[in-house]
Amino acid sequence: MKKTITLLIISCIGANLVIAQPKPRRPLPPREVAEEIKKALDAGEITKEEAKEKMEEAISNIKKPESFSDKEKISPKELADKIQQAVKEGKISKDEAKKKLTALREEMEKKGDFKRPQRPTKPELSDELKESLSQIKADQKKLHESMKEKLADLGEGASKAEMREAIEAFKQENKEKFEAIKAAHESIRESMEAARPEKPERPELTADLKLKVEALKEKHKELHTARKELHEQLKDASKEEKQELIAEFKENNKAKHQEIKTQSKEIKEEIRALVETEATRTSDL
């Protein structure tokens, strides 16, 4: 009898626990919106009923996770094009489009229709290479400190010409050490390149695109040469002369800089169209 009563009590307690389980909490409106509504209510600008309605409206406007219809899942490329077109027409923002494309990509990953590109694993440096790098850094530091001491011996009143002359003399005195460091660097670079995994094959650029890339490189070289010339002119120029030279350089190369910028963008878009074939790319946004 006692056993039966005990079982009944336990079963009743279990039933009560099931019944007493808390209901799922309703979503709350964004904090900023709730605070604005509260301020308006406290100021007497709206009634309690209006505040309640605004709260309900804010809750209903909370965006749910992106979901797609069966038709959209079948044709992700078409959906991605629609999303990008909506951005161009100003119907949705770039951030909204990226969220939609990310959700679409995740949906495609579940089906195995989309694979994220895997970067080749960076090879681990051997203990020997690590030791060589440490030695190079130590040698460089020692040379740098010695050079600082040589320059300090010139005194605070030393001119730029005297300092340059001292630096050149120091380089000549320590030529063998500098060359040894350079050779060690080259050796390490070759070892690292040999251990580097092969890069994935890139698609061949069209003949027209190759010509555009070469022409752009030439323009970059011209601008680089002009910058080097400016740098040389600035070395011994006064503060006022420097300002004039820089202003003149900017004015003379303004059109060239804009041309390089425009052509770079055009070439980038052409290469992207050739290389990127994935429906869910976001680089066009």
How is the topology of this model organized?
Layout: H1 2-19, H2 31-42, H3 48-60, H4 70-74, H5 76-88, H6 94-111, H7 127-153, H8 160-173, H9 175-195, H10 207-235, H11 239-275
Helix pairs in contact: 2-3, 5-6, 7-9, 10-11
Give your account of this protein's structure.
This protein is mainly alpha-helical. The protein folds into four domains: 25-62; 65-115; 128-195; 205-234 and 257-277, no CATH class. Helix content is 73%, strand content 0%. Helix 2 packs antiparallel against helix 3, helix 5 runs antiparallel to helix 6 and helix 10 runs antiparallel to helix 11. It is extended. The relative contact order is 0.06.
**How many strands, what sense, and barrel or not for the largest sheet?**
none
Shape: extended
What distance separates the N and C termini? 76 Å
Count the domains. Answer: 4
Helical segment count: 11
Structural class designation: mainly alpha
Number of E-type strands: 0
The value of Rg in angstroms is 34 Å
Helix content: over 70%
Mean pLDDT: 76
Explain briefly what this protein structure is.
With 285 residues, this protein is mainly α. The protein has 4 domains: 38 residues; 51 residues; 68 residues; 51 residues, no CATH class.
Offer a few descriptive terms.
mainly alpha, 0% strand, 285 residues, extended, 73% helix, 11 helices
